[in-house]
Design goal:
The chain has 17 helices and 16 strands. The protein is α/β, with parallel strands linked by helices and 477 residues long. Strand 5, helix 7 and strand 6 form a beta-alpha-beta unit. It is globular, with a radius of gyration of 23 Å. 48% of the residues are buried. The N terminus and C terminus are likely disordered.
Length: 477
């Protein structure tokens, strides 16, 4: 890593900042420090996991120089465009040589941005469109693939990229149904066997506040985790009104974030971030899920806009999951875990930073966001994902995150299915389920039917368009 006059070595930072200073004291069994007068004679912590037995990314500002890497982007919408620039900003000696998307306007839009902002010229013969554009991108001579298509396509794209020996960055979520889950797991094993580097877009794994928190919790700072709550309560996401000339298929793909078969519903597409923290920090899979949800204000599509799920984990503890996409309601995007010695929250401090408290409510550690900003140039986890990915590729040290992310994805799928059906859903049942939301035929010109909910029915607008005050098609399942 190149250092400027304001840079600081990782070792110096770990010694000087409260971010790691408190981490050392809490994790080592020394006297606890507290911003609000905690106990000075706390017993030594018993680690949940010994350091060195779990993966911690090296979150440096910039990837080390090395082999030139040519990337192909599959999915050129908002997140694909964002990931493209995150990749370019993460290292020297990286470029983008091929673009692919279902629609030409998206490919051309990203090509224009790359030209104007990075002086990267994507020739016409490297701009691929259509449902098979992913194959053309992967086969175009690239070294790495960035997959940011609607989530239902990702298992297929990852499978093909792995077969072709490409390193993959997969945006979250990476599957929307049990068939996709099993495809991801199989491709993950193949990628590991080929020593490929696979990183996923669950960016909290590359966010310093979460990584430092995880290390502390593994050191025993809050004791054994006994329960918790994970939230993504926010406003409604974007949607696309149907335009003249758009077929059923084109409208749904352009409006993908509102359709179950494409996004998996928002518990899968968005709330997977928080469920990922749950499965990561506890190291557990959900044993079962019982939940409910409803559709209240969504304008297009056929999915819910709120879920409430009770997860029973493998060891018997319960964690509550809550997510909502409704404007003008209380927002909360965070995670909270209660332990036998204290509690942790991802944004429980007055400054919104991660915080650990003892059982009396005294603060014993707060992530020092100011120290991070003072001592690191790069604090964006979306870019740090790519820094870490590139460093693994260039160092020849394989990494495979897809199988871990698949566990969080399956938790979200379990919660969704319980809410849709009103029944208790188990891990064993869901991972073996034949549920496949991928349509038998994706027709971009004519009417098309969708699998799963409403399977066998012709797609009809009035089944899914929201009419305020009236029951919606597929509102109850």
């Amino acid at each position: 890593m190149k250092k400027g006059k304001n840079s600081i070595s990782r070792r110096t930072f770990l010694k000087s900042s409260a971010l790691a200073g408190a981490a050392g004291m809490v994790g080592s069994g020394s006297a606890l420090t507290s911003c609000s007068g905690g106990s000075g004679n706390a017993p030594a912590n018993v680690p949940l996991k010994e350091r060195g037995t779990y993966y911690v990314p090296d979150l440096v500002d910039f990837a080390t120089d090395g082999k030139e890497l040519k990337a192909g982007i599959i999915g050129c919408g908002g997140r694909g465009s964002g990931a493209a620039f995150n990749f370019l900003n993460a290292a020297n000696g990286v470029t983008i040589t091929a673009l692919g998307d279902t629609f030409k306007d998206r490919v051309d839009n990203l090509a224009g941005k790359l030209k104007s902002e990075k002086n990267i010229d994507i020739p016409e013969n490297k701009r691929f469109t259509g449902l098979d554009a992913y194959k053309q991108v992967i086969d175009s001579g690239v070294d790495v693939i960035i997959v940011a298509t609607p989530p239902n396509f990702r298992p297929i794209h990852f499978q093909y990229a792995t077969e072709k020996g490409k390193h993959s960055f997969l945006e979250k979520p990476i599957c929307v149904d049990p068939v996709g889950y099993r495809m991801i797991v199989a491709s993950s094993r193949q990628a590991a066997a080929k020593n490929l580097c696979v990183v996923t877009g669950t960016q909290r794994h590359h966010q310093r506040s979460y990584v430092e928190s995880y290390k502390l919790i593994m050191d025993g700072a809050i004791g054994e985790i006994t329960g918790g709550t994970v939230y993504w309560n926010g406003g409604m996401l974007w949607y696309r009104d149907r335009q003249p000339g758009w077929s059923d298929g084109e409208w749904m793909i352009r409006d993908w974030v509102n359709w179950i078969w494409l996004s998996g519903d928002h518990i899968v597409e968005q709330h997977v971030h928080n469920l990922d923290v749950l499965t990561w920090f506890t190291g557990l899979k959900p044993k079962s899920a019982v939940g409910f949800g409803s559709r209240q204000r969504r304008v297009t599509g056929n999915q819910f806009d709120n879920f409430s799920i009770d997860f029973e984990m493998e060891n018997g503890i319960h964690v509550h999951s809550m997510c909502r996409q409704i404007h003008e309601t209380v927002s909360n995007v965070s995670e909270f875990f209660q332990g036998t010695k204290g509690s942790w929250s991802s944004n429980g401090s007055p400054t919104g930073n991660a915080i650990i408290k003892d059982l009396k409510g005294n603060t014993v550690w707060v992530f020092d966001g100011e120290a991070e900003r003072a001592n690191y140039k790069q604090t964006d986890p979306y870019t740090l994902e790519h820094v870490n990915w590139i460093n693994h590729i260039r160092s020849g040290k394989p990494i495979e995150q897809a199988s871990e992310t698949a566990v969080a994805n399956m938790a979200a799928i379990m919660g969704r299915e319980s809410a849709y059906t009103g029944v208790k859903v188990t891990w064993d049942e869901m991972t073996a389920s034949p549920l496949d939301l991928y349509p038998k035929d994706i027709d971009l010109k004519n009417k098309m039917a969708i699998n799963g909910y409403g399977s066998g029915k012709e797609f009809k607008l009035h089944d899914f368009i929201h009419i305020p005050g009236k029951p919606q098609g597929n509102q109850t399942r």
